[in-house]
Write a structure and sequence with these properties.
mainly alpha; two-stranded antiparallel sheet; elongated
Length: 312
């Protein structure tokens, strides 16, 4: 006969048996949970906030929108320097000697200047001053464009929105005042949202570009902070408002709160690698001698099935 292995094999059961109707129990559980879901959804509704669009953002804080648009032009926004899969702005996060995003490459090309500024403005019909401004911008050299952006940026800290116009106390800015004001007006009307979503094919449900544009500003981050959704606020497992969130994600978001992950620029890929390692170890538990014997040695099963062991 095969030798009995205490950390793998279970002894043959010789105790009593009791009838159990799993179909009946499953049906009762399903009905009870369904009633609770319908009742709670009717009483409380969805805890989700309305989606933040470029129109929402530009109407709530037009100066922040215009400042972000200027950042897209001078390449200082998150998207401009993000790297793969959007552009070649950086090598991306590191895992030892590996740059994982760069290995995949640019699969969703995004050029902030062209995609967020120039292309949407070019789609505005019957606007002669804007057409002149765009022609002036495109005809200028890269050096001249950089000079205009630099001059405009000098007065950006004093930027104001008044009478449906963006005003900046700066000179020698070329076509930028017209371009930034027109883009802000376009955003406040909702036209920019549609211009960024529209893409190839019949279905236009790719919101990558408007989401990246909104994320480059400070408005969305301020809302996330107020709702306790930032990474240093355990945001991954939180829900908006006072509703409980995804509690099962606590182990993942926990690592973002402790060193060295809490201060590492490569935290995302490091935490991902750590969780993948933990997942592999969990899958291998039945095959690791000693580790697989822990449940039997600590005898926790006698606590779980205490009624059975009490009777036998």
């Amino acid at each position: 006969m095969k030798r009995f292995r205490p950390d793998v094999d279970a002894p043959e059961y010789h105790g009593p048996y009791a009838p159990y109707d799993i179909i009946k129990e499953g049906t009762i559980a399903f009905v009870v949970v369904a009633i609770l879901i319908v009742a709670l959804a009717t009483l409380f509704g969805s805890p989700d906030e309305k989606a933040i669009t470029i129109r929402t953002w530009s109407n709530a804080d037009p100066v922040d929108f215009a400042t972000t648009a200027l950042g897209e032009l001078n390449g200082t926004t998150i998207t401009a320097g993000y790297g793969a899969p959007y552009n070649h702005g950086s090598l991306g996060q590191e895992l030892g000697p590996l740059h994982l995003a760069s290995l995949v490459g640019v699969t969703i090309p995004v050029n902030p200047v062209q995609d967020f500024i120039l292309a949407p403005l070019a789609s505005v019909p019957n606007d002669y001053p804007l057409s002149v401004a765009l022609h002036q911008w495109k005809a200028a050299s890269a050096t001249q464009q950089s000079a205009w952006v630099a001059n405009y940026s000098k007065g950006a800290s004093a930027m104001t929105w008044h009478n449906d116009q963006i005003t900046v106390p700066a000179t020698n800015t070329g076509p930028l005042p017209t371009m930034i004001t027109s883009l802000t007006q376009m955003a406040r009307s909702g036209a920019l949202d549609q211009a960024l979503v529209t893409g190839r094919g019949f279905y236009t449900t790719n919101y990558t570009k408007p989401l990246l544009f909104v994320a480059d500003g400070s408005y969305l981050a301020s809302l996330a902070q107020n709702q306790h959704l930032l990474g240093n606020q355990w945001g991954m497992m939180n829900e908006t408002g006072s509703y409980p969130g995804q509690a099962w994600l606590w182990l993942y978001t926990f690592w973002y709160q402790v060193p060295p992950f809490s201060s590492s620029p490569n935290a995302d890929v490091q935490v991902w690698a750590l969780m993948m390692l933990a997942s592999v170890l969990l899958l291998l538990v039945p095959f690791i001698p000693g580790l697989r014997a822990i449940p039997r040695k600590v005898r926790i099963y006698r606590v779980i099935w205490r009624e059975h062991y009490r009777s036998t």
